[in-house]
Amino acid sequence: MPHVATTGTFSWRRFLVTFAMSMTVLAIMLFVMASQGIALAAPLAGIGGVVLEFDRLEGQGFQLLPVTNDTDRAAGVPMARAKIDRLVITDLHMYKDLKVGGKTVRVSITASPVEISGLVQDMTYQQAGSIAFTQQTVDEQRGANPLSMTAPGVVIEDARIIAHYLFQNKAKLPGMKLEVKVID
User: For a Cys-Cys bond, which of 27, 33, 105, 157 suits 38, CB 3.0-4.6 Å?
Assistant: First the structure.
């Protein structure tokens, strides 16, 4: 009995309908992400030593905890973890200096006013012209988080922070400018 090879049939109509439905769903997902600011919600973990400078930060739902985290130079470095539920930053300048081919290249982002929800930031340095808290509480306990500081509201002015981990659930950066330049 000879074997007969058969080929399947291909329905262009079924293919095009399925393809169009898939592209429509993808377009809707991208539109929702872009309109909600989620497209900028990528964490900047593991890049170490990002410098943040700003004129003013106003936040609600502030919490500060001691943590250890890794940097680009060492493991298990003691840091302060700041968590802020919602915040607005005026005149943000965020940059990272990288060694590339024997030269220092600065990758810089500026924007204002920046709106962020769900900020988590691990830092080793913070300097500010002023910091004001509303209803600040400092709590010392045994366990994983022996010390915490909380406040329903925080205002930080003229600040410089060195952060080793940044995460935002949602971020909007109106007027964002990205600049890459050799600085030496």
Answer: 33
How many Å apart are CA 52 and CA 124, to the nearest integer? 12
Query: What is the DSSP secondary structure assignment for residue 113, as one 8-state letter?
Result: S
Give dist(CA 108, CA 97) in Å, integer.
9
- Cα separation, 67 vs 59, in Å, equals 21
Task: Dig out the tokens for 163 from the structure.
Answer: 């952060």
102-125 per-position pLDDT tens digit: 888 888 899 999 999 999 999 988
Sign of the C-alpha dihedral computed for residues 99, 128, 140 and 117 taken in this order: negative
Neighbours of 90 (CB within 10 A): 14
Task: Give pTM, 2 decimals.
Answer: 0.71
Report the alpha-carbon distance of residue 61 to residue 44 in Å, rounded: 22
Residue of 153, 127, 162, 166 lying closest to 63 (CA atoms)? 153
